[in-house]
Design a protein that fits this description.
heterodimer; A: 430 residues; alpha/beta; D-Maltodextrin-Binding Protein, domain 2; disordered N terminus; B: MetI-like fold; 13 helices; flat; TAT_signal (chain A); Bact_solute-bd_prot1 (chain A); Raffinose/stachyose/melibiose transport system substrate-binding protein (chain A); SBP (chain A)
């Protein structure tokens, strides 16, 4: 025990050391001084940290669990995704992470289930009964080496969130093929409505249009593309990704985005669609709530699958397991935390969370948000592809993707060079 | 007559101990991870020798960031201190509102850099009817509207402008302190000798300001080389890699890519680089002070 402690203390000091070298570099002098943030865990209550997207569901379940379990209390905090990445990783490195914390499904980011499980930082949930109900197709997002490490309420659809009123003004209907999409955009533009709002200054927004297109341009033809990539038999630069990126740029060249997407943020793009200044934005259904909240007439907002090709049958949809929660392997309240996760896994509670974040429940036949109706046929026909990064082998591909898209939109690189850069990041070891 | 007694050396022991435990040990232990492939979490860590440093020499992203860092630093050192000096000279005169003006020019310095960055993000909103673009339109300069932070060729300079806007007041205060130390009688006798404003600045004020110049150039150089907050808050290094600096690269390597070992290597190189530049600078500027 004593040995254990001294080791972890040494590691903590090393981490501080690394940070202090970094601070020498990063911290600025008096005029532009920096500051640190810290947190400490208080006894008795379960410490939970999540990202903003989760709040509606997670808070609801914690509240209902608390009301039915006397003596249980929690301390819940939220932060934007990139801040969680920094603060939580530092806490994980120091061995004092919150008892229950946000984790991204699958692999591909520094806070993803596979990366953290590999480092021995997550508690094994395999003994919980709900884990038996995870559909086979989604197991990769939940499991590492056959053990389940993350809870997530279901899957989010990725497509176009659109403003029905704006569509009606231009007299158009949701398109089902790429050509129809172009003509819909043309008509919207003619009416003075921005066809597609794009807030590419916010890094994660940059990836959404490629994610919407590659199920059609890549996976419909090569469903095992991810396996081929891992085996080194395929590359981004020599695949349907080229077609997807060219289509992305075609939308820009035709003037279907707002001006200056690289200078526009997610929040600005959201408000453009919510107010009808723009007709649609390619987004995940998990943020439908945020769009509705920004609108005076929330019922005007709905979603349709963003078509990638002219063959309707090839237009597969991206559907990713939504960001979930896991239990820190070092938590001293593992039992309490596990019993809460077991509660989250019960069908009724799973449905509550799924509904709150507009996603399709992981299992069971609950009713889904009516805005997602157009996605269900593809989902039933097994034409859904998990979000691409969930099977990328390291945390570098996704940020590289963000950066090269911004460079493409800024006219600073070519599709070929951009995809080669992603290939280069992909080949780096985890 | 005063007798100086050197205090016994062991008086310093408690301070040295605290310094060793709080600063030296963690720094050295942390620097050690620059020679490993540690991910920042977990125990898995292998010694990789100087691989991280070799990789750094070929890392196009880090080299681009180095270029951006140097450009930013030069811009900040020259423009911030130039403006700071002009402001100091301006408010060092007898004008009535000088106290109020000093306050106004210094005010941005006391605001958190994150707040300033978010404020300027609004100012730099690319929409033609918002922020700076709206102001340009209102005065008939609509043709100059820009995508301030979204245009890869412009973003770095937009960030530099924000930093200068915030920190020029800080340079001003240091120059002002220097100006207060210039004896008035020197100016008076020079005036009697017929020296004009420019000549008096050139031969009296400027040489005597040398210590203030040293401090200001040093501080703004170190500030520029290590610039982080404003970039993360305004552009996150984007669009693409257009505004990445060494500090944002090391941050991303550690916390986004999960490569703590490599990140520490970048941090180590940056720390040595900053120290070397500061050392050379202070050597040169100090010699200038004595020459004056």
């Amino acid at each position: 025990m004593a040995l254990d402690q001294s080791v972890s203390r040494r590691r903590l000091l090393q981490l501080i050391g690394g940070a202090s070298v970094a601070a020498t570099a990063v911290g600025t002098l008096a005029a532009c001084g920096g500051g640190g943030s810290g947190s400490s865990s208080s006894g008795g209550t379960l410490k939970v940290i999540g990202v903003g997207d989760q709040e509606a569901g997670l808070r609801k379940l914690l509240d209902t669990y608390k009301s039915s379990h006397s003596g249980f209390d929690f301390n819940l905090s939220f932060a934007p995704a990139d801040q969680v990445q920094t603060a939580l990783r530092t806490q994980l490195g120091g061995g004092n992470a919150p008892d229950v914390h946000v984790v991204y499904p699958g692999n591909g980011s520094a806070m993803s289930m596979a990366q953290l499980a590999k480092a021995g930082l997550l508690a094994d949930l395999s003994s919980q009964s709900w884990t038996q109900k995870i559909p086979d197709g989604f197991k990769g997002a939940f499991q590492s080496d056959g053990k389940t490490y993350i809870y997530s309420p279901g899957s989010s659809m990725l497509g176009a969130i659109y403003n029905k009123k704006a569509f009606a003004t231009a007299g158009v209907e949701p398109p089902t093929t790429w050509s129809e999409l172009l003509s819909v955009c043309e008509k919207l533009k003619a009416k003075g409505i921005v066809p597609i709002a794009l807030g590419a200054q916010t890094p994660w927004i940059t990836q959404l249009i490629p994610y919407a297109l590659v199920p059609g341009t890549v996976y419909a033809k090569t469903p095992d593309f991810d396996d081929k990539m891992l085996a080194g038999q395929a590359s981004f630069a020599d695949s349907g990704w080229v077609d997807a990126m060219n289509k992305y740029l075609e939308l820009q060249k035709k003037g279907f985005f707002n001006d200056n997407p690289n200078g526009t943020t997610y929040e600005q793009a959201t408000s453009m669609v919510a107010t009808g200044k723009a007709a649609m934005a390619v987004q995940v259904s998990a943020v439908l709530g945020a769009f509705r909240a920004a609108s005076q007439t929330p019922d005007d907002l709905s979603m349709f699958p963003f078509p990638a090709t002219d063959v309707a049958a090839d237009n597969w949809i991206p559907a990713g397991v939504v960001v979930g929660i896991a239990i820190s392997a070092k938590s001293k309240k593992t039992d309490q935390a596990k019993s809460f996760l077991d509660y989250c896994g019960q069908q009724e509670n799973l449905n509550t969370w799924a509904e709150a974040v507009s996603c399709v429940p992981l299992y069971g036949d609950a009713k889904v948000d009516p805005a997602l109706t157009l996605f269900l046929p593809a989902l039933k026909a097994n034409k859904a592809v998990p979000f691409m990064d969930q099977r990328w082998p390291n945390a570098e591909v996704q940020p590289t993707h963000f950066a090269v898209v911004q460079e493409l939109l800024g006219g600073k690189t070519t599709v070929d060079a951009a995809l080669k850069k992603m290939d280069e990041a992909y080949r780096k070891k985890a | 007559m005063r007798v100086r007694i050197a205090p016994p050396w062991w008086f310093a022991v408690p301070a040295i101990l605290v310094y060793a435990v709080v600063v030296l040990y963690p720094s050295i232990a942390g620097a050690g991870s620059a020679f490993t492939d540690w991910s920042g979490i977990g125990n898995a860590k292998t010694f990789v020798g100087i691989d991280n440093f070799k990789q750094l020499a070929h890392d196009s992203q880090a080299l681009g960031a180095l270029r951006n860092t140097l450009l930013l630093t030069v811009a900040i050192v020259v423009v911030q201190n130039g403006i700071g000096l002009l402001l100091a000279l301006g408010v060092h005169t007898g004008i009535k509102s000088r106290m109020a003006l000093r306050l106004v020019f210094f005010a941005p310095v006391v605001v958190s850099p994150v707040m300033v960055s978010f404020l300027w993000k609004f100012v730099y909103n690319p929409a033609p009817d918002a922020g700076l673009n709206a102001a340009l339109g209102a005065v008939g300069l609509g043709g100059l509207r820009q995508d301030w932070l979204g245009n890869p060729s412009l973003a770095l300079w937009s960030v530099a402008f924000t930093v200068i806007w915030q920190c020029a007041g800080y340079s001003m205060v240091i120059f002002l302190a220097g100006l207060e130390g210039v004896p008035a009688e020197l100016h008076e006798s020079a005036m009697v000798d017929g020296a004009g404003t420019v000549a008096r600045f050139r031969y009296i004020t400027w040489p005597l300001l040398a210590p203030a110049v040293t401090i200001n150039v040093m501080l703004s150089t170190v500030g520029g080389l290590t610039l982080f907050t404003q970039i993360i808050a305004m552009t996150n290094g984007g669009p693409g890699y257009a505004t990445d600096t060494l500090s944002t690269v090391l941050y991303k390597q550690a916390f986004v890519f999960g490569k703590f070992g490599y990140s520490t290597a970048v941090a180590l190189v940056l720390a040595i680089f900053v120290a070397a530049v500061s050392f050379l600078q202070i050597g040169y500027l100090r010699s200038r002070e004595t020459a004056a």
